[in-house]
Amino acid sequence: MSLLGAIDSAVTALNAQSQVLSMVSDNLANSSTYGYKTTYGSFDSMLVDPTDTSYNSGGVTVATRTNVTAQGILAASDTSSNMAINGDGFFVVSDGTTGSDLEYTRDGQFTVDKNGYLENDGVYLMGWKTDAQGNISGGTTTNDLSLIDTGVLATAAKPTTTASLVGNLPANATVGQSFTSTFNLYDSLGNAANSTVTWTKTGDNTWTASFANPTLASNAATTAATVTSGTVTVTFNSDGTLASTSPSPPSLTLTGWTTGAANSSIALNLGTTGAASGLSQYASTDSTLGVSLTVNQDGVAAGSLASIYVDSTDGTLYGKYDNGQSIALYKIPVATFMDPDALTALSGGTYALTDASGTATLHVAGTGGAGAVEGGELEESTTDTNHEFSTMMASQQAYSAAAQVITTAKSMFDTLITAVR
């Protein structure tokens, strides 16, 4: 190999080690960047005219490699809208408010912007809309994705659908004697109403319960709906425990809400047969007989959105309301690729697909090989500072050695020129 060849080879080494130093610098600079994946140099030798009998080195080339699939450590976050992927895959984001121009990221520093959308440094999180139970409303393709708008359900209410009645009917009441108690409930719009329940003793160990048309809690003079279900018959055992109900199971149906709410069907739980866990019949020691009824029902008044959080099993995004409700709003998908390391890295911690990476396949989090979405967590950088310092020192030594080769070759050129003179 000629002296010029030695210099050319050393120059490629200088260039390669310079690039490696740049990678080390980027890695160290991003050691605290959430979702960052370390880049490293992959070296390959070059040969000039390898069929020649003499040695003809061409030097070295370096290519940038990024282990995009490397899992960073998950760290707890105080922000409930922050999230991380534990396993393979990426969040799907858009760089525009129309939901087009999809990109992919592992950085889950999402916060609610002034318009109610989940965004991270100018890119918006995409998801599938769900019903209140967390079931995806439409399809599960890329075309079914939409920007996650936390204000999609700014207020929420829950109608009464089940009610457990707990109380004692006085066994020492006379046949035909009646007592009243109040039954509280909510319509589908969150309006509170009250229905009067009349308990009538119809025989030994036998009572009936009839429900009056409910009136608005805000105005007792206004009828809120019409009761369309019949009277409930309740029978007790000789030991005071519940024996049976007719119909079984009992229910209360309400139609024609004057509030504009949907018709109601309320399943009534009067207790367990053979037990006194709900209704019971024991003699009362009160001077004035009566029925004290406790109603535990599942309806709630209308409430406003207070916060959001992510379920840690399947990526369901919930809205938490000030009335105590938690309602599913979106399902956050996880995108996987045939070759994620072939994705093109962009500024801001996002990636764009390439022909080599293949198209994105969307999964419900935790299924199909995709990682789980962990709410209130963030994925830390995969940079190992100890390793980076070691690489930096090795690169510095290699760079110095290549520079020394050039110095030596120059000295040899100087010797040659002196000899020619």
Model description:
The protein is mainly β. It has three domains: 104 residues; 149 residues, no CATH class; 139 residues, Tick-borne Encephalitis virus Glycoprotein, domain 1, CATH 2.60.98.20. The strands form seven sheets. Strands 5, 6, 7, 8, 9, 10, 11, 25, 26, 27, 29 and 30 form a twelve-stranded antiparallel β-sheet that branches. Strands 13, 14, 15, 16, 17, 19 and 20 form a seven-stranded antiparallel β-sheet that branches. Helix 1 runs antiparallel to helix 2.
Fraction in helix: 10-25%
- Rg result: 36 Å
Total number of domains: 3
- Poorly predicted tracts of residues: none
How would you summarize the topology of this molecule?
Layout: H1 3-29, E1 39-47, E2 57-66, E3 74-76, E4 83-86, E5 91-94, E6 102-105, E7 111-112, E8 118-120, E9 123-129, E10 146-147, E11 155-158, E12 162-170, E13 178-186, E14 192-203, E15 206-211, E16 215-216, E17 219-223, E18 226-227, E19 232-236, E20 242-246, E21 251-255, E22 264-269, E23 279-282, E24 293-297, E25 300-310, E26 316-321, E27 326-331, E28 333-336, E29 344-345, E30 350-352, E31 361-364, E32 372-375, E33 377-379, H2 385-420
Parallel strand pairs: 12-22, 12-23
Antiparallel strand pairs: 1-2, 3-33, 4-32, 5-6, 5-9, 6-30, 7-8, 8-9, 9-10, 9-27, 11-25, 12-24, 13-14, 14-15, 14-16, 15-19, 16-17, 18-21, 19-20, 21-22, 25-26, 26-27, 28-31, 29-30
Gist of the model:
The chain has helices at 3-29, 385-420, and strands at 39-47, 57-66, 74-76, 83-86, 91-94, 102-105, 111-112, 118-120, 123-129, 146-147, 155-158, 162-170, 178-186, 192-203, 206-211, 215-216, 219-223, 226-227, 232-236, 242-246, 251-255, 264-269, 279-282, 293-297, 300-310, 316-321, 326-331, 333-336, 344-345, 350-352, 361-364, 372-375, 377-379. It is mainly beta.
